[in-house]
Amino acid sequence: MASRPWRKAISTINEFDLIRALQRRYRSNGPGVLRGIGDDAAVIASEPRRSHLFTTDLLAEGIHFDLATASFVDLGFRAATANLSDIAAMGGTPEYILVSLAMPQSASKVQVEQMYRGLMTACRPHGVRLIGGDTSASATGWFLNITLVGSAPARDVLLRSGSKPGDTLYVTGTLGDSRAGLQLLQHSPRRSRPSISFRHRRFLVTRHLRPTARIREGCWLARGRWATSAIDISDGLSGDLRHLCEASQVGVDLDLSMLPISPACRAYAHGLKQDPAMVALAGGEDYELLFTVPSRRAARFEQATRAHRIHVTRVGRMLPRGRGLHIIMPSGRRQPLPVVSYEHFRSQR
To answer: 214 and 97 in one domain?
Structure first.
């Protein structure tokens, strides 16, 4: 009998099995709905040549954030960026935000004002306007839910499902920084911590608390029709690459020696005697874009990125689905892509 995730205890639920089950039961593609469950944002036909993009994220205290390691301003900023990044992965322009907030009895007006200040600090550079939301009391901790609305030319929307075997895999920015920054914040004085410079520490912590949504890069990829598929890296490269491959029904060879890793993240990993590539592979909340480009256009694409000062790195190649998902070790050895990314309902952090 087929598994029914909605009848299981939460400790036995696989997050992505649940999403797939909901997608099968409530499949919503149809008139007006160009893309429903299963991508970074839903795509709704709103005008003959333009589509609206809808995304939402729920953040729960103790699961997604710890107020011992982040201020309310940081919390608001990171929450907005998570949603902005979804719109970026679709090649869209963010426009409107709605915020719903549940607060414990200990909450103060100052804390709420600080959270909204962080939200709008992230949104304002993109012209995003706050248009509504809801508030509620909470019996436990803080809960923050954001809905972001954006738009894109109908023909330019990026999906996870367009990659083909032979495409080249790229990523923006650097990987693993946010994970390293979070772990630095979580180290107590009594616990061992890597010996890294103040400059590296500040870089990594800032990358965690104030991540960048790659709106400019996503729009550029979409308008130039460079990318065949795209996803943002929120749960970690290992997991999000799997989502892209599953949606496109392709395999992949990911070259670990090519992963873009900042000097700060390398110093952090070496300080803990860890492999920097594995830190990058597992790291979540970097909010970089992972995308594919047809191999025949790769040379011209890379030339265009240099001309437009878009920082991307070639990290792999897409394969037929039957070839599977693999990483290429620096030694040249090929092995299965490990599952090391974040997943809800499973304690990992």
So the answer is: no
Domain boundary among 155, 189, 204: 155
Whole-angstrom Cα distance, residue 318 to residue 230? 13
Q: What is the structure's pLDDT at 193?
A: 66
**97 and 178 co-located in one domain:** no
Exposure of 12 in the CB half-sphere (CA atoms within 13 A) = 7
**How crowded is residue 22: how many other Cβ atoms within 10 Å of its Cβ?**
14
The Cα 226–Cα 212 span in angstroms is: 21
In this structure, the answer to whether residues 184 and 137 fall within a common structural domain is: no
Q: Is residue 97 domain-shared with residue 224, that is, in the same domain?
A: no
Give percent of the chain with pLDDT exceeding 90.
Answer: 79
Q: Domain range for residue 268?
A: 168-336
Give yes or no for a contact between 152 and 177, defined as CB atoms under 8 angstroms apart. no
Average of per-residue pLDDT across 109-122: 98
Residue finishing a domain among 120, 155, 190: 155
pLDDT (0 to 100) of residue 7 = 53
Q: Reduced to 3 states, what is the DSSP secondary structure of residue 83?
A: helix
pLDDT digits (tens, 9 = 90+) for 246-303: 999 999 999 999 999 999 999 999 999 999 999 999 988 999 999 999 999 999 999 9
Asked, for residue 92, whether it belongs to a domain, the answer is yes
Please give the tally of structural domains in the chain. 2
pLDDT value, residue 133: 96
Three-state SS for 118-131 is: HHHHHHHHHCCEEE
Q: Are residues 218 and 313 in the same domain?
A: yes
